[in-house]
Amino acid sequence: MVTTKLTDLDRSVLARLRGNQLTAAELADRLTADVDADAVSERLVRMADNDLVRPLVDDSGSDDDADHSDDSDADRGDGGDDNRGGDRYALTESGRRVLQSPNTAAADEAIDLPPSVREALADSSVGVDCAETVKHAFTFLREWKTATVPELKAGVFPETSTGYRDADEWWDNCAREVLAGLPRIEPGDETAPFWRYVGDSAADGTVDDADTDGRAVLRGRDGGPRYANLTHVLVDRGVTSEQRLAAAAAFDALRKRGEATTEELRTAASEAVPETENERPDDRWFRDELPELLAAVPLVDRLDDRWRVPSDASDAR
Asked: What pTM was estimated for this model as a whole?
């Protein structure tokens, strides 16, 4: 048997074959990476040598050992009986195990990272504390696809154990530079403040499910929606990019102070969105909707005109 190291492309191909029987051309069409059918075909041949995939025995796409976890016609490719790109391939039992292992609940988080990300972290000069928290930051972005810096601070730092004094020190002295240097991450800046995950979620361990959220959440107040963090609230409420920037800035101001008035939070939110912004939230949004968003964030308490959230260094940890 030929041995070969699995690449990120290999994992993407295996993920697309889960429950499917596809040709190299059909796989190339479904991949988010810019690859052609020839490149996919070459990887399929190598993975077949390693018993991770196998070509089907006939053009009909039937094979007793193929992956039949979903036998619908749609999953045999967009073209039904079309055999673009040569043989159809299916996962073997070994291929299914490769996909399943990183996604089990007991799996170590490092195993769930793409090989290129693990290697980048291993090659970095940061300490263990920093590297471990950046793993969390990567998986956070992989889950949510985009996030502002305040969202990363609020969503990642409280869930980790580090030697950093607070989320700001963690971001400035560790996470910002290391996370920006990881593969599949597109860092934000002053003109484009959203950090983005630009990889292949299916291959990296995140499976979209329209019926279940799949994220650890806190029970909502009064039987209402349940949210895991600030980002969960903003995504679920379907806010615009400008509203998201404003709300994230307001929460960040509250996190830093521990306590604030409604007017102080509105001011922080307003300053985060320039007056010249075409889609700037209107006065009604700042008055009515911003407080509703903040009140839905876990651990945020409101008493009349005053707001409180545990500080990074106290009971939030």
From this structure: 0.63
